[in-house]
Amino acid sequence: MQRPLIALGVIVTLCFFLGGCGDTHDSITQEMLAKFNELNTVLDGVKDEDSAKAAAPKVEAISTQLKEIQTRGSKLGKPSDTDQKAMRDKYEKQMQEAVGKLMQNAARIQMQPDLRKHLDAAMSKMPNSM
Prior knowledge:
Layout: H1 2-18, H2 25-44, H3 49-75, H4 81-110, H5 113-123
Helix pairs in contact: 2-3, 2-4, 3-5
């Protein structure tokens, strides 16, 4: 009798710490924002061909993570109007800054063929609708 209860406790604890069971609209938004900021950090470091080559697998990995977060978020359904307003109030400025910077980084890289050729494939793996 003790073993199943201990096993259940371990599963619940792992689920919580690994994030698979505790998704909320707020937590998904936080994760997306963190990934946008991480992506910007990687792209900020792209200055030449060597750094573009080094950034490509990182961009691809972040793209995959963003898709996974997006998939988990879509399973939650649409947030209530109250939750949506609360998240907009809490994250709108941060999200605008992160996405604006991401657009600047993408434009900068697109304007430089020696950088673009190393990052086009990785950038094309970004989720289409975020």
